Amino acid sequence: MKLAIIVPVSPFETNEVLEKSVVHVKELASKFNARVVYVIDKSSEKDSRVELARNFGIEVIERNGRRGKRAGAINDALNYLKSFHPDFVLIMDVDVRTDEETIRNCIKALLNDDRVYMASAKRLIYNDSNLVSKTIEAEYRLLNFLLKKSSFKQFNGLIGVVRFEQILEGLNETAIAEDADFATRMHAKGYKALLVEGRFFEQAPITWRDFYKQRKRWYFGGLQLWKYRKEIMKVREVRASWILALTITYFPIIMLPLLPIGIPLVFYIYKSIRRLKILFGFLVYCFVLQFSAISAILDFLRKKEVGWDAIRRS
């Protein structure tokens, strides 16, 4: 079994963030004798991050410009790995952290079922340092629960282990949400994704502005997926959950009447009265999400693309 690890790096990521990622990924790769490839979209000709990564013994693909953005970076890495031809590819972002057991569980799920194109684990937040990130941490708890129930499993960012042969066909570089685009195409072909035991940690936005920009992009990407509706409607197992994911999620304001139910839930989950402020966070969250959904719909109708901006790290 051969494993490769791909980490795309946008021009917005700092040297410090990159270095912490490299240290973690190198340690993880040593458990599997995996080949590691970082794809760095350079911010300038003098970008020192390329040399930083190579000084750690990491293979680096330099990109001048951002053709296809994250999808383009991953596609370039896949082409680079053709001669190595790994069985599986672990895709991570620079802020993602995981462990050996999680990756082994993902690989085991892929080995046990040829219809599984991807395996991943629940997502958790490790920077719940303010109201914004604490609210998103609570949101992820709900999303992990819903992901277990849904037959259409789409893992944000394609974070997880994918079969090389299936992802080798490439990600859609014109899609705003390349992860959801790829997941939809795979499910339409009769393949499935699995949620296994384990954890992938990542950073949440720490400002409502960054949260708004991130989710607007996600909503816009979701609207692009309707072009696959004829193909996905033929797959009975996933069509209902796919439709729900692309309809009801655009009206988060309907969650407001449920906020009172959150009081006992917060006590039950966190065992802390101080965490009740999350309910105020969810109040703001609903309005920011609704505004981002409306903004994405309007831009989609006007055929105005959304931007892909930097998100502050904590």
What does this structure look like?
There is one protein chain. A 7-stranded mixed sheet has the order 3-2-1-4-6-5-7, sandwiched between helices. It starts with a strand and ends in a 13-residue tail after the last helix. The protein has a domain at 1-94: Rossmann fold, CATH 3.40.50. It contains 12 helices and 7 strands. The chain is globular, with a radius of gyration of 19 Å. By secondary structure, it is an alpha/beta fold. The mean pLDDT is 95. The protein has helices spanning 15-30, 49-55, 69-80, 100-112, 131-149, 164-167, 178-188, 208-224, 229-232, 236-245, 262-270, 277-301, and strands at residues 3-9, 35-42, 59-64, 88-91, 116-125, 160-163, 192-202. Helix 5 crosses helix 12 (277-301) and helix 8 (208-224) packs across helix 12. It is 47% helix and 16% strand.
CATH topology of the domain at 1-94: Rossmann fold
Q: What's the β-strand tally?
A: 7
Number of helices: 12
Strand order of the largest sheet: 3-2-1-4-6-5-7
Mean pLDDT: 95
CATH architecture annotation of the domain at 1-94: 3-Layer(aba) Sandwich
Fraction of helical residues: 40-55%
The end-to-end distance, rounded to whole angstroms, is 36 Å
- Please indicate the percent range of residues in DSSP E strands (runs of 2 or more): 15-25%
Q: Any idea what the radius of gyration is?
A: 19 Å
CATH class of the domain at 1-94: Alpha Beta
Structural class: alpha/beta
SSE succession: EHEHEHEHEHEHHEHHHHH
Which geometry do the CA atoms define? Answer: globular
Low-confidence runs (pLDDT<50, min 5 residues)? none
Largest sheet: 7 strands, mixed
